[in-house]
């Protein structure tokens, strides 16, 4: 039974690894974007200082032209800053969506794994009530849900019905089969009949 859950566990570990990698990438990108935003804010606040794209005004230019140039440069830098902020928000939203999806998938897999564990525990309890596990060879078809299985005591006629030839046996109907046991504790059916 553990072989059935090995792929699920492997997939769960892969999802956890992917989540950690995506978180690391998101943190790296966040740090880069924040550095770029700080640099752009620095350029916006002091557009003439430390800006490699601007030429220094010459002494012959007028003050009015210089102020207009400064305003245009500041406006362009603010626009570039806004574009970078929008890109950053978009990337951040995409990463958050991916992390949420992976987190949901991991939660679903954990729930499924817990359900499977509960089923295994249930089947172990069934096996313990029927006898030792060493004497039983079961397949997955033998382990049905209780709702697919009916059990009852029945009277079966023997060869000589006229002389009171009725035999009491334990009957189980499961997976289109009628199984008759001599007692409830028997592990092998005395009679097995296919029921269509």
How would you describe what is shown here?
A four-stranded antiparallel sheet has the order 1-2-3-4, with no helix packed on it. It is rod-shaped and about 130 Å long. The protein is built from two helices and four strands, in the order H-H-E-E-E-E. It is α+β, with helices and mostly antiparallel strands. The protein has two domains: 132 residues; 49 residues, no CATH class. About 7% of the residues have low confidence. It is 57% helix and 14% strand.
Topology:
Elements: H1 2-45, H2 63-130, E1 149-157, E2 166-174, E3 177-181, E4 191-194
Helix pairs in contact: 1-2
Short description:
The chain folds into 2 domains: 2-133; 146-194, no CATH class.
Main attributes of the structure:
single chain; 196 residues; alpha+beta; four-stranded antiparallel β-sheet; 2 helices; 57% helix; PH-like_dom_sf; PH domain-containing protein; coiled coil
Total number of domains: 2
| Biggest sheet statistics | 4 strands, antiparallel
Low-confidence stretches: 132-144
Quaternary structure classification? single chain
Structural class: alpha+beta
Query: What is the helix tally?
Result: 2
User: Order of strands in the sheet with the most strands?
Assistant: 1-2-3-4
Give the strand content: 5-15%
In whole angstroms, the N-to-C terminal distance is 29 Å
Biased composition (Basic and acidic residues): 62-71
Region (Disordered): 41-71
Coiled coil: 74-126
Keywords: Coiled coil
């Amino acid at each position: 039974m553990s072989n059935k859950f090995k792929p699920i566990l492997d997939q769960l570990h892969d999802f956890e690894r992917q989540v950690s990698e995506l978180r690391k990438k998101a943190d790296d990108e966040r740090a880069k974007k924040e550095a770029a935003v700080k640099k752009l804010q620095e350029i916006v606040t002091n557009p003439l200082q430390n800006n490699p794209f601007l030429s220094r005004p010459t002494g012959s230019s007028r003050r009015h032209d210089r102020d207009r140039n400064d305003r245009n440069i500041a406006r362009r830098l603010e626009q570039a800053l806004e574009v970078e902020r929008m890109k950053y928000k978009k990337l951040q939203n995409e990463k958050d969506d991916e992390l949420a999806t992976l987190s949901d998938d991991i939660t679903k897999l954990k729930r499924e794994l817990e359900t499977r564990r509960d089923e295994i525990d249930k089947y172990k309890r069934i096996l313990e009530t029927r006898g030792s596990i060493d004497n039983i060879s079961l397949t997955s078809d033998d382990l049905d849900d209780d709702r697919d299985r009916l059990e009852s005591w029945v009277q079966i006629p023997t060869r000589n019905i006229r002389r009171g030839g009725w035999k009491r046996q334990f009957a189980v109907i499961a997976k289109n089969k009628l199984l008759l046991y001599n007692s409830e504790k028997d592990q092998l059916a005395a009679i097995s009949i296919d029921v269509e």
